[in-house]
Amino acid sequence: MIVATWNINSINARAQHVKEWLNAVNPDVLLLQELKASEFPSLVFREFGYESVAVTQKAYNGVAILSRRPIEVVSTALAGDDADEHARFLEAMIDGMRVVNIYLPNGNPVGSEKFIYKITWMNRLLKQMQSWIAGSTPTLVAGDYNVIPEDIDCHKPSSWMHDALFQPEPRALYRAYLELGYIDAFRSLHPDEKGQFTFWDYFRKAFDYNRGIRIDHILLSPSLGARLERCEIDRSPRGKEKPSDHAPIFVKLS
DNA sequence: ATGTCGCCTCATAGGCGA
After folding, report:
1. pTM above 0.85?
2. Is the distance from CB of A192 to CB of A239 less than 8 angstroms?
């Protein structure tokens, strides 16, 4: 079973890219972030054999799950703040597995309200991850975490030092997720591989020089970790015309 | 500071978020 995640930076601008990638890789489940649209074009993907559910918001954020198997929505909002209106969270059951799609707040600039929101959001997620792992349902939590976990996950730590994605606090919270028992699928299979990124800035030819960061992650509860066979970043869509600034990453589970 | 996208509107230019 293949489960993938991809920040597509506007579903309307990138629907063709998504279709091409579905054709090429044929994943069972694909999580999308940054839809940037009020409506999700479900019909387009139904023609491809994918059911879809989405949480949308005009112009900003937005997450969707595409699946070949039936999707049962559990929750469309992260617990812990009823006033939070951002479309950043979608929890569903697919084939007996809990699938959680997240678009974690960016948090820039450091020291702003946005940074506080990021930290609060990460703490809310920590609580949920704690309660999920205490249960017996196999759980996958994936998406754009907007966190660079370690120095190895960016081309040059000094150029990210002042960025919200690389601050000690979000990085500590990310580690706290792993300390609960979740497995970072990519890093567990590629422990020392450098230069493995999922995002490159549009400017300064960042992709050509592989000046990127690894911020899109797939975390697995222990029972899914035991089924982990592969985890790869597919850089090819990033090299196409009018690409998203992120590349898709996927796991293969036995 | 800057670079580049995609979205929106007090809309064909500028601001915001990334």
Report:
1. yes
2. no
